[in-house]
Amino acid sequence: MNKLDYHYQDVWRFTTMATCQSPIDVVAAKLQTGPAMVLDCSGLQTTALERKKQVIGDQFFCQGLLRIDQQAYSLIRFHVHDGAEHLFDGQAADAELHFVFQRPDGGTLVLAIFYEEEAEAPLRFQKIYHNQGQRVQLQSLLPADVSSVITYRGSLTTPPLKKDVDWILVKEKLGINPVDLATFKQDYPDNHRAVQPLNGRPVQQRPVKMLPKS
Ligand SMILES: [Zn+2]
């Protein structure tokens, strides 16, 4: 199967008229403080996975529910980027995972998790990549303790770059085993889009109470 060629990403923007694109560089000095949120991940439990090869990168389809304050979001799929797409003060983590949810209004919300290579980190992704049909514990892909998140409105990061996507970026990074990282690189090397102009969008840092507590 052909894969999306990130060398030609400059021409992707012609697929959309939207000016509020993702990813972005999150600049700490320019963050606004937003209201606290309760991020309830107890619905992201053990689930059977179905891996589907797609041009934009392998997608892992599974069941799950995220609750933000009292609102429920249904998990549609997740995937991984080799090299983070969102930057923090210009710095990229080694990998970024996107949990893609359907909002109650039919729109899209993406929860982004960031990983830094760590020799002693547990193997989290081998089962996901190589043992299809098995059940995996989604919470193991999230940091256990999250104190705040970054939120803003943007787009999906692959064509057709669907707009009006709510983003939640979890700043606390999780260690990733070099073997897991090599698996991403082998499948979809450097599949990260360059950061896009903010165009005046507010970017908020919001304190979080994460459930369940580990
Ligand atoms: Zn993505």
Automatic annotation (TrEMBL):
<keyword id="KW-0456">Lyase</keyword>
<keyword id="KW-0479">Metal-binding</keyword>
<comment type="similarity">
    <text>Belongs to the alpha-carbonic anhydrase family.</text>
</comment>
<keyword id="KW-0862">Zinc</keyword>
<dbReference type="InterPro" id="IPR036398">
    <property type="entry name" value="CA_dom_sf"/>
</dbReference>
<protein>
    <recommendedName>
        <fullName>carbonic anhydrase</fullName>
        <ecNumber>4.2.1.1</ecNumber>
    </recommendedName>
</protein>
<dbReference type="InterPro" id="IPR023561">
    <property type="entry name" value="Carbonic_anhydrase_a-class"/>
</dbReference>
<dbReference type="InterPro" id="IPR041891">
    <property type="entry name" value="Alpha_CA_prokaryot-like"/>
</dbReference>
<feature type="domain" description="Alpha-carbonic anhydrase">
    <location>
        <begin position="2"/>
        <end position="207"/>
    </location>
</feature>
<dbReference type="Pfam" id="PF00194">
    <property type="entry name" value="Carb_anhydrase"/>
</dbReference>
<dbReference type="InterPro" id="IPR001148">
    <property type="entry name" value="CA_dom"/>
</dbReference>
